[in-house]
Structure formats: C-alpha cells, structure tokens
Write a structure and sequence with these properties.
It is built from five helices and no strands. The chain has about 120 residues and is mostly helical.
Length: about 120
C-alpha cells in the first residue's frame, strides 16, 4: 500500500473536498478538461520519448520538461465546477501524484487558486 503523504492528502482534499458525494452516471469531464488531460498525456509521452532517445540534447530535454510542466499546471489551474470535472480532475491528479509527479509548490498553489474562482 502506498504511503499517504501530506501532499497526497492536500491534493485530494483541495480537489475533492467540496464535491457532492454522488457522481451522476454519464456526467463526465467537460470537453475543455478532456482536452487539457489529453494535452498533458501527449506532453508526458513526448517527454519520456525525448529522455530515452539516443542523442537528445539537454535543450531538448529541458524544452520537453517545460511543455509537460505547463500542461500539468493547466490541469491544476482548471476551475472544475461541475461534478464531472471535479471527479475527473481529482482522479487524474491523484494518479499523477501516485507516480510522484505532482510535487512542485506551483502545483498546489494552482489547485488551491482554481478552487477560488467562481
């Protein structure tokens, strides 16, 4: 069983604490959030390809890392208003955190700021 860290608890609480306990069947993520998640998945895959490609330069690695980071911050910053968006955002960010990749102060700040938007 993975260790529960303060960061995991904060991420989960920040994204899910205000969500209703029920999740309407068929209520999924908005097209906007789906696009952000798709963009992050693509950037994450590209980052791993660059890091594992023979002959990739440090510039290529830094650029791929920056693109992936910006894509993740876009999800963290997204103001998830509907139940479907809140659930999809929470599930995605918890899976990202479980890989040890939701670890920057900017991630937590973006999540908390996204909750303040109405």
């Amino acid at each position: 069983m993975p260790e529960l860290t303060r960061r995991t608890l904060l991420a989960f609480t920040a994204v899910v604490s205000f969500a209703e306990p029920t999740f309407a069947e068929g209520e999924g993520a908005s097209p906007e959030l789906q696009a952000l998640i798709g963009a992050h998945e693509a950037a994450y895959d590209a980052l791993h390809r660059v890091f594992h490609r023979a002959g990739s330069s440090s510039h290529d690695r830094k650029r791929a890392g920056w693109i992936e980071e910006e894509a993740l911050l876009a999800i963290c910053s997204y103001p998830a208003i509907s139940r479907g968006d809140r659930r999809a955002k929470a599930e995605y960010l918890l899976a990202t955190e479980a890989r040890g990749e939701l670890d920057l102060e900017e991630h937590m700040q973006a999540i908390l700021h996204s909750m303040m938007r109405s």
